[in-house]
Every structure is written in structure tokens, then in C-alpha cells.
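#lab-general

N.A. 3:47 PM
ok so I finally got the sequence cleaned up, no stray characters, all 598 residues accounted for. can someone with queue access submit it? mine expired

B.Y. 3:52 PM
send it over

N.A. 3:53 PM
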Amino acid sequence: MSGVRRTRHRSPTDTATRAWAFRDRSGGGPVSDRPSKPQPTREGQPADEAEQAEGGVPPGRVEPGGGGKPGGRGAPGATGKLGGEGEQEDAVATHYDSDWGAPLPDGGPSFEHLRGEPPARIRVATLWSVLATGVLSMLLLGDGVALNLLIIAIPAALGAFFAAQAAGRRPRPWTVAWAVGGLVLLLVPALRDADLPSFLAVVSALALGSLALHGSRTWPGVLLGPFGVFTSLLTGLSWGWRGLRDRTGGSRGNLGSVVRVAVVTAGLLLVFGALFASADAAFADVLGDLMPDVSVADGPWRLLLLALGVVGALAAAHTAAAPLHWDRIEVAPGRARGRVEWALPLIVLNVLFAAFNAVQLAVLFGGYDAVLKKTGLTYAAYARRGFWQLLIATLLTLLVIVFALRWAPRGTPGDRGLVRGVLGTLCVLTLVVVASAVRRMDMYVEAYGLTRLRISVVAVELWLGLVILLIMAAGVWGAGRLPRVVAASAAAGVLAFGLLSPDGLIAERNVQRYEDTGKFDLEYARGLSADAVPALDQLEEPLRSCVLQSIAEDLRDGDGPWYATSWSQARARRILDDRPLTDNWETCNQIRQDLMYR
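B.Y. 4:20 PM
back already:
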């Protein structure tokens, strides 16, 4: 093997042991007499998946078998495709070494190999942004979750931007999309009162923010990037302390002057603000609405919120300045299988899917009555049993597609055409299964009404169908952007789920069902959030008051400041103020008993 590059120095004994493996033959140049054990290759990897999303190998990438060093054994960016000629030679050389029992290089990138250059010294603008984040966290958190999260996130995002700018990182389109998407997701708790949409939106916003800080684009990067900011909690704190000490000259006098300026500024605002508030009642009302109600008893809790805000902002800024390069994690491709070994199980599975879908179409056009009479199931039981099985079938199909792509034969155009044909057919048939599952849940909702669980699982099923469509598109236009597009679709689904207001949809659907059938789940409706008040307000008295009593009590107990009050809560209070509730417990008990027997 001429031209095989070595990754490390050999000892004299090692060199002598290997010298016999290279000898000249009558045909010409040196050849390798290594063992006949098959060597790993990448011949089954298509060009559209071999190339990176932005084209070419990113600088500093850890090549397989590269001892964990960025850039592999050759010059950085020497090849624009995974599995290029130089990389194949390196893989063979590393495997050749392992056959002969020599000490191997580092077995892949460790956590330290994912780190890039150390961050530059923290900027003054970043320090001010971190301080603003901590102060706002201390003042605005603790009374609830609404618009305050977005207010706190803005200075934290600015601090990360200043830190990335100091490190020479320029924002790319996907980075801007992740950052803007994370901020937009924080509008959900500002608009909605329900816990589930707000929780999903906050978690998704944190994940998108972390992706914006890391700039990941591969599957390992997209899956691990959302957790990367947590690795900077301690390092970010020490980085910020060193920067503050350097900015103040490392002396207590300079640091004390900064503290004195802050204390004097706060004192002036406090004194003159109190004077103006006592002089004018209108100004006092405005100031009282804007300023949070902070008592001395809340001191320890507020200090903890201050610390959490500072640590979180420093972690975000440190990640922006020196992110972990999750894209350096290489996933070894699977060994390509033969056509028959790979395609036969999938073709049989396609036949099974086609048979099931044919039965579904026959039932759809032939009516459900014959099926129910033959099976002995009720209308709702038939729908409920079918949905969960079809949801699991959709999830398993995605796993089958993932493993099928890993072991797919792609050495020739015929192989690639076979892969597209078989997997494309499976995706199309799976979309029919998704439609059947959604239809079954719609049947169940018609019988028993809409709930949070039912609307949530339907949303998940629809998103899985979207992922299958994206996989089909990737088979035509390439899979380079598929990881980021799938992550973006999940974030968009969470945003749509929150903006559509699940509790509002549940209330509207159940009110309509009550008007059509006279059936209504009173106890479940009483447990909805303030998002459902506009729809429940359409009910006739005394049912309206019986349903809204519990929600009204929650609104009275949770009356917080403006920054901790969602738009749905404010709207619900206006509706209840315009039409006060009637309190008649005996009437509500009678209505509850009447509804139970319908």
C-alpha cells in the first residue's frame, strides 16, 4: 500500500516487525501483505449523504481513527466528502495496525476533543447583559410564568451575541433561525394559561437556544446540542469571574468602585422615585404597576433567582464564545448488505402494509356497521383499540427506515434506485396508516369528546407523518439538511400546539358536542385552564356558572403582576367581570347528576 499515511511514530521494534509486510514484486511498486481480514469501507454511502449540509468537511472535524485530533491526518478540508480517498486510506491504516496488535490511537473523540479554542476575554457589553439578566430574574421571576420569561431571555441572548462576536463567530441563517425561534416560543406562556403548552414551549426554547449557540447540523449535533449549554455552567462562571477581575484591574479598589457606583445609582432611583410617587398619585399608580412587589422576607429567594440568572446568562455567553463541536462526533456507517438480504424483508413488509391499507379503504367505503357486527366491538372500542396500535406501528416504521438506510446497498445506480423504490413505497404506505390512525381518533372523539391526551397524541401522530414526508424529500434532494429540518419541524409543531390553544379547542369541541347530543363532561371541563373560558362562556345558565366556578377561583388565587399574567388569564377575567357567575351549589349538583345519566 503505497501512500498510506501513519498517524504516530513507530518504535524500532515495531518498524522491524512490519518491514516484511512491504516488498516489491515483478509488477512494480510496493504492495501490502497484510492479513486477508476484510477492511471497513464506505462504498455503500451515497454522495448526497456523504457530503456535509453546507458542503465539504468543516474545519477542525475529527476524522475516524484520527486520534481525536481535529482535521484528521491530512490538511484540514482536504476532502469534501465523508469516505473520501484519503479518509479510506486512513481507515485502512488504522485497521491494519489493529490487526497486528500495535497500540492504537485514541479510539474516537472524547469530550475534550469536542472543545475548540478557549474563549476570548469577556466583553464589558456581555458583563452588563449578564448583570441585567440576573437583576431581571431576581425581580420578575417567582410570581408565575408569562411575559417575564421573554423579557429575561432578551438580555441573555444579547450577552451571547456579544460573546460570539468577540470570538469572531458570525451568525449564519440557521443560527438566526434557532435564536428567533427560541424567542418566539417564549410567547406561548405569555399568551396561554395551560401548563402543557407552556412547558413544551419553554423546553423547546431552551433547546433551540442551545442549538443557536452551538451551530450543530448533523444528527449527533442536533440531538446532543440542546444539552450542550449545561456543560458551561461552571466554566462560564469562572470565565465571567476572570473577566470581571481583569476588567477591574484585579484590585479590590476598582471592584469596590464598581459596587459603589451601583449602590449610589440604586439609592438615587429609590429616593427620587419615592418622592415623585408620593407627590403624584397617577405616577404612583404607574410605578406600582411597573415595579414588582418585593418584600424583605423574600430576600433569600430573590438572591437565589439572581444567582440563577447570572449563572445561566454566563453559561450561554461562554457557550457562544467557545461551543462544543458536536458535529465532530462521527457515526460509522453500517456494512452494506446484498440486494436480496436487504430488500426481501422490506418488500414483504410493504405487502403487509398494502393489505392493511386495502382493508382500511374497504371499511371506509363499505361502512363500519358490517365490521362492528362481525367483530362484536362497539364504535368507540374499535376506534380506540386501532389508534394506539397504529401509532406504535408508525414509530416502528421510522426505526425500520433508519436501520434500513444504515445497511442499504448503494454501490451502483441500480442499488440506489432499489433503495429509493422500496423505502419510498414504505413511506407512502405509512402515510396511509397515519391517516387511518387520525381518522380512528376522530371517531373516538365523536363518541366521547376531546381531551388533552387525545389532542396531544393526534398532534404527535401528525408530526410523525410530517417526518416521513421529510424523509421522502431527503431521498430526492439529499439528506444534508434533514437533521435541522426535523428539529425545526418539532419546534414549529410545539409553537402551533401552543398558539392553537388545546384547552380552547377542547372546550369548543365539547360545547358543540353538548349542543348536538346533550352530553357533556362537567368535571373534566371544570379542570380546564383560562384558555377555555371564551368557549365555555357560550353555555347557557346555570351550566355556565357551574363549569366556570373552578376556573374563576384559580384566577382569583393566581392574581399576579402584569409580567406574570398571561393574555388568556387577562381575557378570562374580563369575561367573568362582564358576566358574573351565579353561586348555586345545589343546582350544580343536580346538573352533574343529570349529565352522568346521559
